[in-house]
Every structure is written in C-alpha cells, then in structure tokens.
Amino acid sequence: MSASSSVQQARQALGQRLRDIRRDSGLSARALAEAAGWHESKCSKIQSGRVMPSEADIRTWTAICGAPGQAADLIATARNIEGMYIEWLRLERSGLKRAQESVRPLFQRTRRFRMYQSWVVPGLLQTPAYTRAVLNTIVSLRSAPDDVDDAVAVRIERQKVLHSGDHRFAILVEEWVLRTVIGTPDVLIGQLGHLSTVSALPSVSLGVIPLGSPRGSGWPVESFTMYDDAQVNVELVSAHLTITQPAEIAEYSRTFSELAGIAVHGAEARSLITSAINALG
C-alpha cells in the first residue's frame, strides 16, 4: 500500500460518512449545497474524498442535515487524517534530536514491534557510526538542523529497550540493505558485525529476505514499523505517515507475514550477513 492511497482511503471513508448523513436527512447534494451557499460540485468532491472538508464545512453539513451531534466526532476524524501525513521538514524543523525523542513514549508503551526495512538497518540495531552516517545524509538531503551528535546519543539510548521488559522485536530487512554502503565500508562492516550479534538476543527475531526471492502482490515499496496492533509508521522520501485505522493496520500485518514467509532466519540469516562482510574484503 502506498502512503498516498492510505491517506486517500481515509478521506474517502470520511466522505462516505458525510454522504450517509446527507442521505439520511433526505436532502440531495444540490439541496445541501444551496442551503450552505456552496457550488454543487463541492458536495460531490467532499463525498468522493477529492476535497478535504474544513471544520466549518463539517459543522455546516451536519447542521443542515439535522445531525449537529455528529460534528465533533467527524471533526476529530478529519484532524486525524490531516495528522497522518507529516512532512519530514516539519518533523525535523527543530532538529534531528527532537525527531528522535518524539517517538520515545511510543517505544515505551509498545510490547510487540514488527519492522520492515528496505533501505537501511533499523535504528534499534544500528551502531553509533552507522547512525551518524545515516543522519548526516538526512542533514545533507533535507537541510535539517545539524545536531547529529545529540540525535545519535538519543537513538543509542533508545536501544536499551532491546534488553528491558517484555518487549519483542520481529525485524525483516532486504539482503541489499546488508550490501548498501552507508558511510564507509569500515562503517558497514562494523554495522554488520553488530547486527549478527544483536540477532542472537532472546528478544530479537531477525529475518533477511534474500536477493531474487519471488514476491507476492503485497510487496511494499516503503519501510514500515508496526507498534503492537495500534499504529503503523511508514517512512517515505518526503514524509512520515502514521496509520491508526484497524483495517489498514491489518493489511500491513498481512504484508509483514508474507514477507516473513520468504525471509530466512537464524543461521541462514547470519550466513548472509557474513557473506556481505566478506564481499567488503
């Protein structure tokens, strides 16, 4: 599932609820538009999800349809949709450290983590040198404030969750993640050695999806992390997408299970890590 389609589905669901309210009132789209002083096409665009209604639009819609009591819930839904898609520049405007700290409460309350990464080693399994290389790339690409050292310290501190409480981590990475040099070859060699060590922790299940593995229709194009069955965070080039709708979370859960089914684990996964280290000389 792409990020844009996920947000669009949420907008369409909101539009469907507004359409049902209008139909229950017995009003046509034209009659509602006339009463609200809108162009008739505005109603159809809202109902189809092509236009996101403002809070004032929602209050007007429900009042005309005789359902003002539903306005508060619909406005809360609209605010959640708007919050789903957060530009990286907005998230990182006050510095990379703040972006790293923002997820701390989420990590503390989550018990079951499921992570799929298609481009880098997941943050919880990174070495300080690898993290620094990743964050330096972000600073360069996005012109984010350069507080990399502070951000690295926060991310490494967060890794204590691997050794505390009853947290469980199921982590999947593509094999090409093991072979993509971020920083320098020496940084990657150190990272791969650490990855092999961490994969032996009782709380961690590491799967590597071998190059050339046949793919099903559910193969994602984005990396994502599942926090219990409550939330999915999706990493995009330009934004950070938060998903909380149960049906969409279930779709990511199915996709994760499909990917886990084609991944190798245990000794086979560590063999692929060793092969990647050897390829670096």
Overview of the molecule:
- The protein has 281 residues and is of the alpha+beta class.
- It folds into 2 domains: 83 residues, 434 Repressor (Amino-terminal Domain); 188 residues, Endonuclease Chain A (Endonuclease, Chain A, 2-Layer Sandwich), CATH 3.30.870.
- It is 56% helix and 14% strand.
- It has 14 helices and 8 strands.
- The protein has an 8-stranded mixed β-sheet with strand order 1-7-6-5-2-3-4-8, with helices on both faces.
- Helix 1 packs across helix 3.
- The relative contact order is 0.13.
- The model has no long low-confidence stretch (mean pLDDT 85).
- Beta content comes to 5-15%
User: What is the top-level CATH class of the largest domain?
Assistant: Alpha Beta
Instruction: Count up the domains.
Output: 2
CATH T-level topology of the largest domain: Endonuclease, Chain A
Strand/helix succession: HHHHHEHHHEHHEHHEEEEHEH
Low-confidence stretches: none
Largest sheet descriptor:
8 strands, mixed
- Order of strands in the sheet with the most strands? 1-7-6-5-2-3-4-8
CATH superfamily of the largest domain: Endonuclease Chain A
Number of strands: 8
Number of helices: 14
pLDDT average, as an integer?
85
The 3D shape can be described as: elongated
**Structural class based on helices, strands and sheet pairing:** alpha+beta
Query: What is the helix content?
Result: 55-70%
